[in-house]
Amino acid sequence: MRHDPDTLPQGRGAGGWAARAAPAALKAGAPRSLRAKLIGVVLLTTLVALAVALGAMVAYDLRVYHRAWLSDMSTQAELLALTTAPALAFDDPKVAKENLALLRLRPQVRAAAVYGPGDKLFASFAAQPQDRRFPAGPQAEGVRVQDGDLIVFKRITFDGDPLGWVYLRADYELYDRVRDYAGIAAAVAVVAMLVALLLSFWLQRIVTRPILAIGAVAREVVEKHDYSRRVERLSDDEVGTLAESFNRMMAEIERHAQDNQASLR
Fold it and tell me: Using CA atoms, how far apart are residues 126 and 7, in angstroms rounded to an integer?
């Protein structure tokens, strides 16, 4: 008795084995999932690399700015201490005030003051009326950031004798720079992600096309029991090796199917 190979029971022969072994994902749209995963990997890799690169650049620039600005204002305070020392020694607040007035050439400096004997205010400078806020007396010598401003206190000496203090308050633009960098980084990230998305669409076709071809042939084999189907090897990489292995597997399945058909005749 002869049997049509298409009507062989699912539990017997190579045809039944192939049908049972076919992944259910082939009927559930797995190729689309593979594309999405590949695009997601490309976008995630781009985002991480961009974040690391921008983060390193911004951190380095902010660190350089912080050190340079602290050094600049510390040097400015030292110069004021040198130029106002004679005014303190000869009790001439007018000269001290004239020296402080030169700070108008430094727009970042908001206020400055000289404290004389007894830690009393000797002369002062304010860039704007609202900046006329001065400490009641000198504080610890050094440079620090306070309430968004850079504060400098420097001791004034004359012939080795302490005479008073210089006080400086300047804009500390580090936080403004952080906000500016955040905006720039966001814009760069959007552009980079769009470019990466376009490239990923092109790359995923190159990578997934051979795999999708194998999936299409596998579906035809499952649906039509046509074990003579083969896939074209499109590359010499791992995907090409997968296509060749698939073709060998299909050849073996076809041979078993033919042998099984012959034995049932």
Answer: 98
23, 221 Cβ separation under 8 angstroms: no
Q: Each residue of 196-235: pLDDT tens digit? A: 888 888 877 777 777 777 778 888 877 877 777 788 777 7
Strand partners, 123: 114
For β-strands 142-146 and 121-126, DSSP reports them as unpaired
pTM: 0.61
Helix count (H) and strand count (E) of the chain? Answer: 5, 5
Q: How far is CA 110 from CA 85, 88, 134, 150, in A?
A: 22, 22, 11, 10
Q: Would you state the structure tokens that stand for residue 258, as one six-digit string?
A: 């033919």
pLDDT tens digit string along 5-50?
Answer: 444 344 444 444 444 444 443 344 444 567 788 888 888 888 999 9
Distance between CA 204 and CA 35 in Å, rounded?
A: 6
Q: Give the H/E segment covering residue 100.
A: helix 93-101
By the 8 A CB rule, do 235 and 36 touch?
no
- Token couple for 215: 């999936």
Cα(234)–Cα(229) distance, integer angstroms:
16
